[in-house]
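SAMPLE LOG
Freezer: B-3
Tube label: C17
Construct: single chain, 88 aa
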Amino acid sequence: MKIKDGFIVNKVGSQHVVVPVGETSMERHCMVRLNGTGAFLWNQLSADVTEEALVQALLAEYAVDEETARADVTAFLGKLRDADLLDE
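STRUCTURE (predicted):
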């Protein structure tokens, strides 16, 4: 899975904001705020990755246990799916 084309992340102050660009901006009028972990996972999703790869990347980057990493990745992906931002 990966992020659908037509979205970028901008850093505004201390926050990361996902916005549609190009033709996508004409069709989609949404804005998603990401915390630091969300921005990290978003960057991982610029390439085609599996959910397991996201969990492993989170474990390598942050001091978090595997159960928490899995729960966080699952929740994050759920939000992206709800917003129809993933190509799967």
